[in-house]
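> Could you send the SH3 domain-containing protein prediction when you get a chance?

Sure thing. Input:
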Amino acid sequence: MIELGAPLGFLAVRRQVRRQLCNGLVRFALTIALVAASARTTGLRAEAGSLPLPRFVSLKASSANLRVGPGIGYNIEWVFKRRSIPLEIYQEYGNWRRVRDWDGTSGWIYGPLLSGRRTGIVTPWTKDHVALHAKPAADSPVAAWLEPRVEVKLTRCDGQWCAVASGPLTGFMKQVGLWGVYPGEVL
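Output:
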């Protein structure tokens, strides 16, 4: 601390100011190091669970809040209002899952509101109708034409074709025409 009443020369004042600046920088560096260390031990990070990440699930609840962080103390950014929509989990924190939907909307949702039952969305990235085939072959008869963004239940997938149901309709769709299953994934 510089005392105002004491006569100091220019060099003495300069040394005193330099010492105070150094002390301030050391305090600042130590504070940053402590904050960074506590963030590493208590901050958000993906946890290694027994199930792989990323993975697809569906919404079990008829209404679910999508939050900006993993806890009820975080703001609600979006509310899902439709049961069984497919969601992709790409991060976990305790009982919370960070998910995204086919539009790219993402946030944190409470894990027990999700189900392992698989569903899909028909080509949300196009405007064309998609054929629902009677058999898993491109030359098989077309049972129906499905509009983009129609939700389907996935029964099984062989990596190329998925057996699906949409209401009373059942049939097969090319796997690359669905959001909710990875290309080449076998169910």
